[in-house]
Amino acid sequence: MHNYYRYCKGLTASLVCAVLLLPVSASAQAPAPVYEARLLHEFSTFDARQGVAVNERYFYAVNNTRITQHDKLSGEALLQWDGGPEGSGLLTHLDGAVVMDGKLYAPHSNYPQWPMTSSIEIRDAESLQHVGSHSFGVQLGSLTWVDYHDGYWWGTFGNYDIVQDGQSEPYGTTAATTLVKFNADFTILEQWQYPAALQERFTPMSNSGGSWGPDGYLYITGHDHPEIYVVQIPEQGSQVQWLATVTVPQIEGQGIAWDRSTDA
Question: What is the pTM of this model?
Answer without folding.
Answer: 0.88
